[in-house]
Amino acid sequence: MPSVHHAAGLALAATEMGAKVHLTGAARAGWRAGRAPVAPDDDVLAPDARGRPARPELVDPRELRARSVRSVEGRIAAVHAVAHIEANAIDLALDAAHRFRGLPEAFYDDWLRVAEEEARHFGLLRDRLAALGAAYGDLPAHGGLWDACARTADDVLRRMALVPRVLEARGLDVNPPMIARFEAAGDHATAGILREILADEVGHVAVGDRWFRWCCEQRGLDPAPTFTRLLAEAGVRVRPPFNVEARLAAGFSPDELEDLAAPR
Fold this sequence. Notes:
By secondary structure, the chain is mostly helical. It has helices spanning 4-13, 17-32, 72-99, 105-131, 144-151, 156-184, 188-219, 223-234, 244-249, 254-261. Helix 3 (72-99) runs antiparallel to helix 4 (105-131) and helix 4 packs antiparallel against helix 7.
């Protein structure tokens, strides 16, 4: 039977979103049923070998302008942007299960679960786009999330620090104001989807936080200064405002949030 890494890699390489969602579910089902063992010697995909659909067109983030969600066009643009984030989040979770070998089985269980939940989020947003008269791929998007994944492909510690604890944690901060904007515009259906996503994303950031701290423990590193060092090495600045409640629930400490919010 294929290994868990191979099964995750098949989903990661899929270029059609329906197939990617299906193969993600199959990878987790095979793992849970014991049919996809850990196999450290499997081939590893290069970061640029992941599959993605031909659309959306990827552009520089500066080319994407914000629109008010009070118009249908604005709501479509906002939902499309979140759908693109979730599409990339599927790949981020799959890549963790595919790329990093020799870790505890709980690591692969966690990231396959996250991948399946991200796939469900994508499905909700894809259906919402259809209800608004649009489809995923209709609008341009940017590739920032996957760029960060590629830059951390050589080290699971850096990946856990700089993707879940930075990029995905940022979603905890921006989601509540977005929910409020959709509610104010009378789009309660989209607001409800975003609330469901936010509840799950706290757990996803917590998965990254847990494995970041595990990696630190294995290497005899203090998590707080290690995180600060990795941010500096990557040239990343984490800026407030923070969703303090969500970040605390996801594993950040009060002292850490205070340090991140301090002027630099």
